[in-house]
Design a protein that fits this description.
The complex is a heterodimer of chains A (about 90) and B (about 90).
Chain A lengths: L1 E10 L4 H17 L3 E17 L2 E13 L1 H13 L3 E7 L3
Chain B lengths: L3 E3 L6 E3 L7 H4 L10 H5 L11 H4 L3 H16 L16
Antiparallel strand pairs in B: 1-2
Classes of the chains: A alpha+beta (about 90), B mainly alpha (about 90).
């Protein structure tokens, strides 16, 4: 188990319920792989530095968690499949 | 590292002042973090390029870390790949 940090950007035009649903889905993704959520930090709506898929705003969420290194590739792939997630990045914090 | 930069005329040289120390070595509490937008923007120029060590004074080791952090920050659209940064009045 290693500590990782995930920043993902959701479409900003979704309603509150959908946003909450999506964040929950992502957390469950980690939990189902025997991971542990340490911290959730919602940055909220932010203007993107450049347009992504013609959208100029995104909803940023920072998630700190513990996960088995073997499961990380899987997580990255699954995040990429979701169309409502504009970008995601998984890194080991220093 | 040279403190002088050619101005394009060949023979004449222009002095470019720069910090003489690495700010990350000097301040151990200053962490290089791709999420820290204010810090990252100090290391890119107005066209969005990564500023060289000769301008920022960063040591080799920390420059590598800064470069990596900038690339991460670009990926999640915190700083642009090219062009000026937009300051959000609401942020």
């Amino acid at each position: 188990m290693h500590t990782y940090e995930l920043v993902y950007i959701l479409q900003a035009d979704l309603d509150e319920a959908t946003l909450n649903g999506l964040t929950e889905t992502i957390e469950n993704l980690i939990k189902s792989a025997n991971g542990e959520i340490l911290k959730v930090d919602r940055w909220g709506k932010r203007r993107l530095a450049y347009p992504i898929r013609k959208m100029t705003e995104g909803y940023y969420v920072l998630l700190t968690f513990k996960l088995d290194p073997a499961e990380v590739a899987n997580l990255r792939r699954t995040l990429g499949y979701n169309e409502q997630i504009l970008r995601s990045i998984v890194v080991r914090p220093e | 590292m040279s403190d002088y930069k050619s101005n394009g005329n060949g023979n004449s040289r222009r002095y470019v002042s720069r910090p003489k120390f690495c700010q990350f070595c000097a301040d151990k509490n200053l962490a290089i973090d791709y999420k820290n937008v204010d810090l990252m923007t100090r290391f890119i120029n107005e066209t969005g390029k990564i500023r060289p060590r000769r301008q920022t004074g960063t040591c080799a080791r920390h420059q590598r870390e800064v470069a990596k952090a900038i690339k991460n920050a670009r990926h999640i659209a915190l700083i642009p790949f090219e062009g000026d940064i937009y300051y959000d009045p609401n942020a």
